[in-house]
Specification:
By secondary structure, this protein is of the alpha+beta class. The chain has one helix and three strands. A three-stranded antiparallel sheet has the order 1-2-3, covered by helices on one side. Strand 2 and strand 3 form a beta hairpin. The longest helix is centred in the last third of the chain and has 32 residues. It is elongated. The model has no long low-confidence stretch (mean pLDDT 88).
């Protein structure tokens, strides 16, 4: 049971010994392709995605108890 996983294809001219990479990121009810980019930029995009998904989950969690008490 993972919250999120980032995967990349490994092979010739992919992932190792090169300056760029790409990821497919999967999480419950979502997925996003982070296209080929410099590894430092890819890391920034991944961190931003993690923060966004985390913030959405927190917002959903705070709304859920309020909705239950109004029903």
């Amino acid at each position: 049971n993972l919250d999120m996983i980032a995967a990349n294809e490994v092979g010739y001219d992919k992932a190792f010994d090169c300056a760029d990479n790409e990821h497919i990121v999967l999480w419950r009810n979502g997925r996003k392709l982070l296209p080929r980019n410099a590894k430092t930029q890819l890391a920034r995009e991944l961190i931003e995605l993690i923060a966004t998904v985390y913030a959405e989950r927190r917002a959903d969690a705070t709304r859920a108890p309020a909705a239950a008490t109004q029903a």
